[in-house]
């Protein structure tokens, strides 16, 4: 005799609750792991161990005939491993940077519901102190609020997998004494948001920030005779559409932000590519200490001489010291036509002896060099089998 749907759903609910209990127990064990590594001084991540774990789980499922797809198993446990690594990292960083603040103020682009606002909440989710949120109308305003001390931290988007580097932020980094203290990745899921139900063919005006417009350009081009109205942020765009309350006027934004303004999702997943992720940086007036056991990034700003091969000479130094360069970005130098400065992002801790030697060698082949920040990364790259 087959069970009815309600009974099946009750069984699923109980299994889900059992899974939550097991996940909680595994999460707690991450603290035992990090305390052990704290004593042994081992790195938080053991890539070979992670690969071995995933392979053993896939093989075990096959041996037990669980009928689970290997990719499904791998994706689930990659996320579990990520949680464990970030939990351990937060533990070490909090011990190293013990701060007892009455409140934490954080500046971000836009108002409630912007992507930067959502990321700022993600950044401070572990904070024990009350959070003060400071809305800004421009990237420059974010910098100024942190530089003046009005904000403890500033959240800024640096690059997107669809639209690429955000040049305005890179250019502002040239002229600040602020330091990078963290980075986060946020999956961007752009939606068309409006008042009530409306057919796409009826839309004649879209309010948006330039970045979402660029990331959703193919969708926008598929519409007929649509006027773009640019706003300071995606949250400002959603706020404007809610105020206008016209069925043929919509905003590009996110579903969570749309709910704050009473907007309906008309169409989702409209970015040019499915894997649309923005990397955000965190700025502060004061640097953070980074545990040598934690995955660490360093961002450098440098200029080279105008001699042939000068840039190559600089980059070879990182290779000679076995330091991985993960990004190279060039930007023009204001007031010096056809000259450029370079942002170099490294998987390295500036306090390690190896990195210190590399930076010393770099001074011999550059005309200017500045460390913009040495910081822990919350972007955990999953291991691949």
UniProtKB/TrEMBL annotation:
Protein's cellular compartments: Cytoplasm
Residues that bind substrate: 9, 26, 37, 46, 50, 84, 88
Record EC number: 4.2.1.51, 5.4.99.5
Reaction(s) the record says it catalyses: prephenate + H(+) = 3-phenylpyruvate + CO2 + H2O; chorismate = prephenate
Highest taxon of the lineage: Bacteria
Location of the Prephenate dehydratase domain: 105-285
Pfam families: CM_2 (PF01817), PDT (PF00800)
InterPro entries: ACT-like_dom_sf (IPR045865), ACT_dom (IPR002912), Chor_mutase/pphenate_deHydtase (IPR008242), Chorismate_II_sf (IPR036263), CM_dom_sf (IPR036979), CM_II_prokaryot (IPR002701), CM_P_1 (IPR010952), Preph_deHydtase (IPR001086)
Major site of localization recorded for this protein: cytoplasm
Pathway: Amino-acid biosynthesis; L-phenylalanine biosynthesis; phenylpyruvate from prephenate: step 1/1; Metabolic intermediate biosynthesis; prephenate biosynthesis; prephenate from chorismate: step 1/1
Site location (Essential for prephenate dehydratase activity): 278
Gene Ontology BP, a term: L-phenylalanine biosynthetic process
One GO cellular component, as annotated: cytoplasm
Residues in ACT domain copies: 299-376
Keywords on record: Amino-acid biosynthesis, Aromatic amino acid biosynthesis, Cytoplasm, Isomerase, Lyase, Multifunctional enzyme, Phenylalanine biosynthesis
GO molecular function, one term: chorismate mutase activity
Domain Chorismate mutase: 1-92
PROSITE patterns referenced in this protein's UniProt entry, alphabetically: ACT (PS51671), CHORISMATE_MUT_2 (PS51168), PREPHENATE_DEHYDR_1 (PS00857), PREPHENATE_DEHYDR_3 (PS51171)
Function in brief: Catalyzes the Claisen rearrangement of chorismate to prephenate and the decarboxylation/dehydration of prephenate to phenylpyruvate.
PANTHER family: PREPHENATE DEHYDRATASE P PROTEIN, PREPHENATE DEHYDRATASE-RELATED
UniProt protein name: Bifunctional chorismate mutase/prephenate dehydratase
Organism of origin: Otariodibacter oris
Lineage: Bacteria, Pseudomonadati, Pseudomonadota, Gammaproteobacteria, Pasteurellales
């Amino acid at each position: 005799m087959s069970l009815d749907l309600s009974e099946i759903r009750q069984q699923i609910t109980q299994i889900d609750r059992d899974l939550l209990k097991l996940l909680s127990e595994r999460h707690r064990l991450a603290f035992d792991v990090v305390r052990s590594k704290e004593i042994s001084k081992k790195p938080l991540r053991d890539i070979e161990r992670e690969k071995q774990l995933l392979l053993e789980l896939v093989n075990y499922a096959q041996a037990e005939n669980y009928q689970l797809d290997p990719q499904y198993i791998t994706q689930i446990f990659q996320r579990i491993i990520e949680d464990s690594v970030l939990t351990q990292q937060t533990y070490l960083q909090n011990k190293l940077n013990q701060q007892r603040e009455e409140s934490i103020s954080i500046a971000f682009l836009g108002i409630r519901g912007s992507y930067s606002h959502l990321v700022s909440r993600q950044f401070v989710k572990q904070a024990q102190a009350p959070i003060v949120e400071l809305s800004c109308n421009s990237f420059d305003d974010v910098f100024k609020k942190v530089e003046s001390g009005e904000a403890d931290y500033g959240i800024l988007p640096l690059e997107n997998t669809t639209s690429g580097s955000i040049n305005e932020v890179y250019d502002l980094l040239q002229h600040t004494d602020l330091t990078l203290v963290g980075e986060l990745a946020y999956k961007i899921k752009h939606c068309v948001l409006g008042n009530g139900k409306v057919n796409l063919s009826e839309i004649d005006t879209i309010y948006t920030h330039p970045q979402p417009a660029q990331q959703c350009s193919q969708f926008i081009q598929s519409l007929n005779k649509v006027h773009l109205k640019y706003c300071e942020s995606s949250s400002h765009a959603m706020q404007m559409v809610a105020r206008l309350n016209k069925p043929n006027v919509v905003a590009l934004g996110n579903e969570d932000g749309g709910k704050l303004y009473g907007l309906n999702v008309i169409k989702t997943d409209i970015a040019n590519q499915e894997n649309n992720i923005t990397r955000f940086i965190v700025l502060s007036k004061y640097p953070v200490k980074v545990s040598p056991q934690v995955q660490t990034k360093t961002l450098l700003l440098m200029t080279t001489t105008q001699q042939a091969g000068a840039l190559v000479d600089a980059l070879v130094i990182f290779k000679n010291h076995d330091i991985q360069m993960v990004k190279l970005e060039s930007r023009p130098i204001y007031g010096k036509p056809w000259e450029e400065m370079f942002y170099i992002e490294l998987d390295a801790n500036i306090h390690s002896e190896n990195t210190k030697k590399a930076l010393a060698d770099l001074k011999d082949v550059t005309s200017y060099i500045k460390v913009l920040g040495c910081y822990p990364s919350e972007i955990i790259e999953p291991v691949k089998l």
